[in-house]
Amino acid sequence: MTSPGPCTVRTARPGDVAALVDLVESAYRGERSRAGWTHEADLLGGQRTDAGMVNAAVRHPDGTVLVAEDEAGIVACCQLERRDDHAYFGMFAVSPGRQGGGLGRALLAEAERFAREEWGAGELRMTVITQRDDLIAWYERRGYTRTGELTPFPYGDERFGVPRRPDLAFETLTRKLG
Fold this sequence. Notes:
Blueprint: E1 8-11, H1 17-28, H2 30-33, E2 44-45, H3 51-59, E3 63-70, E4 73-82, E5 87-94, H4 103-119, E6 123-129, H5 133-141, E7 145-152, E8 162-163, E9 169-176
Parallel strand pairs: 5-6
Antiparallel strand pairs: 1-3, 2-8, 3-4, 4-5, 6-9, 7-9
C-alpha cells in the first residue's frame, strides 16, 4: 500500500485484533486518551470497542480495516465498509502521541483512495458525535459536509460506551470522491 511519512499502510489481519482494540481504546477512552485531542473521555466512559467487534470488522466480507504502522507497531487505523451506493468510514484512531502530526490526514486520504480506486465508491460517509465540534471541523477542512442526518446514540448498549450526558447523537458527514 502507501507510506504516510515514516509509516506503512496495510490491510489488518486477524492477529492484529488485540493491538487494534488497544489503539482504539487509547485514542478515545480513559486517561491515556487525554494525551491526544480526539478523545471522548468527557462524553463517554466504558469501552469504545472490544475484540469481538474489531474481529468482525477485520473479517467483514464487504469491508477492510487499514492500519498504519511504524517500527513501534500499529499507530493508526480505520475501517471501511462497502455499501450499496457509498463506502462507510469508521473506527478511525490515531495513537494519542502521534495526533496532530499529519498521520490521521494521510490515513484518511488513503482510505478515500482505497474506496474510490479499489471499490469504485463515489462517496464516503461517516458518523460523528454531534458534540465533537473540533473533530467535525477537522473533517470539514478535509472536504466533508454535515448532512443534518442524526442517529440517536445507543443508550443502554454498553458495548459502545457509558454516556456521561443525556443528549448524545451522531451526525452523518459525507464527501464525494473523485
